[in-house]
Request: fold
Amino acid sequence: MDQITFFGQLLQYIVTGITVGSIYAMVAIGFNIIYNVNEVINMAQGEFVMLGGLIMVSLHVALGVPLVIAFGLTVLAVACIGLLLDRTAIRPVRRPTALTLIIATIAASIIIKGLAMVIWGKDPFDLPAFSGRTPILLGGAAIQPQYLWVMGFLIIIVAGLSFFFNQTIAGKAMSACADNPDAARLVGINVQHMVLLSFVLSAAIGAVAGVTMTPIALMEYDRGAMLAIKGFGAAILGGLGSFPGAILGGLILGLIESLGAGLLSSGYKDAYALIVLLAVLFVKPSGILSNQDVTKFKRL
Amino acid sequence: MDRSSTLPALLEASDLVMTFGGLAALMDVNFVLAKGTIKAVIGPNGAGKTTLFNIITGVQAPTEGQVRFNGDLITGLKPHEIAAKGISRTFQTVELFDNMSVLENVMLGRHMRCRSSFLGAGLSLPAMRRQEKRLREQAEEILEFIGLAEKGRAMADSLPLGERKILEIGRALATDPELICLDEPAAGLNETETEAGAGLIQAIKEKGITVLLVEHDMKVIMNISDEIMVLNYGEKIAEGAPAQVQCDAKVVEAYLGDSECLF
Amino acid sequence: MLVFKKSPIFAGILVILFLPLAASFVPALGSYPDIMVFAGIYCLITIGLCLLMGYAGQISLGHAAFFGVGAYVSGILTTRYGLNPWLCMVTGAALAALVAVAVGAPSLRLKGYYLAMATLAFGIIVNIVFREEIEWTGGPDGLIGIPGLSLFGFPLDSITRYYYLVWATVLLAFLFTINLIQSPSGRALRAIHAGEEAAGAMGVNVANYKILVFVYSAVLASIAGSLYAHYMNFINPAAFDLFFSIKLIIMITLGGMQTVWGALVGAVAIAFLSLEWLHLFQEYEMVVYGAILLLAVVFLPNGLAGLPAALMEKMRR
Reply:
């Protein structure tokens, strides 16, 4: 009997890990989109997730806007905030070194977090799950349907981005910028617009992550920082700039965190992902999937 | 018969191989650099000159092969360890310390020749203060030698390119090197500046310092080098006195695809 | 700034010396000595950070960790074992130095975002340890009953006395640091900032210097932490969290990283902001911090301390 229960528990941790990992993967993808266009790491990435959750709560729970419409409006709203971020925090920095951009995006994240605290207060908020909370029983584990929504949206996002980067002109233009901004400019691509687009896209994806995770883990004003750091950890684990890497990194990180919290100590839960991040940075900062030399920046 | 074989060998490279992935940047390169001479390394772009430089100065370790300096094995040592052995260098794209003045750049060159303890410095011990004065004087002497004496207080980034290149040489000289490696010292310079640079290199030789240089400007090379080594596609295809190399068939073919003499 | 003129230093010393006297006569200045104790404690950290980030060009988003190490070592050893507080302060500094070497050696090989994230992660991990190791640290509730300090039997049990202790320490740290900057070591650090490859080619052991300056900044932060613990007589993990590391960044960005004066200006400014003026903004506190940081990084590339020089440049044109 004990064996089955342990196996059930393990499965539970694994499923949770994959779900949490999907969220980290979405955050990591957001990092990669912006990084690929102009080598900036957006330290405010986690705030997009937080805003996604909280704005959805306001629209759907407080104002009663129907789920799908509220979802759409939320993503739109957060995308606009992404636009604002580029315009007010990134563009104005006159000496764009790694340090000044880190500081600028940290400043932006603090402003966003501060405003969120004023608007929503410090308490966590809940969202109704998209398709109810009746758990699906699988081999001793109780899987919340919302978990499947999270994983599903990750797949949708990946498919959508794949189409965008490979089949649309805007997407191909963005890839061109990532590869060679000077050449991109020469063929008439407006790099500044591409940077803006990358922020808008990242914000939108962050919002999706926030909306889908709130029914599971609630959302409060200061969740952004840890999400950003762990999402960055996932991005680095898989190789900064690589989308398959982001997914792989996210899932691995999510699993390690879930298994660690379940099997070792839950108080140190956040530390597991951070320790993995440090380990990757110390041993192979280019990540498991890539071969680049990360000590030289192309543009910074 | 080249004169350098009668002088002691300062630097010896044996069987150097450098491969990146599947690409061979250097293949079985052997050479000897005689003390007190000026040796130029030339070759078309991509010939492996920068790779060779990077190996000698410790920026990269070769895939195979060895480099000896004064008999000591220096392959795979870190750049600051190579500097401590007595090898200094300049860079293809001038790498001065733009956050410092001209004088301070040269003073930094003296870093290895001074005691730089954190504690002593923080406490501003009299010995440290005397040392600082000495360093300043030594740096000013070097500025005199290279002709930048009045520009000591100017910020390094305020100088025109020609003077920046000379300053970089001065900084390298400040390390009291036995060998100085110059990476394209004439690149981007006009006729006057190039002549001044060439004069400086000869003055360096007269001080007894050995010079290894990578260069494309053939006039300079023909005038000042004691010996030339030609690389092509990572292999040494010729080595010898300038007059010899000029008419070497392989060299001419590599550059011109022809069999006339070069230059 | 590399040549440090003596007159501003003497002026500063005079101001510091007479502030408590002024405060006892002018009611409006009454809270200033207390605020200045905190300002001084922050200065110790920012002086080290300024050397690390402004001069040597590295990044640390986790310095609250070292502040916490000093505070907790002092707190734990004095409350649990009744050891001499000064000895504990030295022990804390030694531990901070060890941790700095252990974390710094692998981290400082990284650059830019990678280094920033490594220090960020490190800072958070240490904070989690402070929160979770309840047996040692008292967990989220913190450590109480930390004794005050006394110097050769003379108890430093008033704000004024502690104020002079802290600022005497700041003066020592300040002088030590500006001597360092003007020495070959200081030049080596600035060379590393300008171009690591060239610095190495000129014989500077880049890796060692980076670790050395990191350790120096960690030791200063640790001493600051010990002083903090003995002043507050109570510490908890919230004081050493990510937001405090960010506050330190706000201090040096606002004050100016390029010069040690900036470290002082920034620390004093933020100390006054957080202890005296912030309650005016009530729940907009965090927004204000963020706005200050953003405005500073966009409009004050050399911080407040760099303004006089920048204005003189403008007037010359």
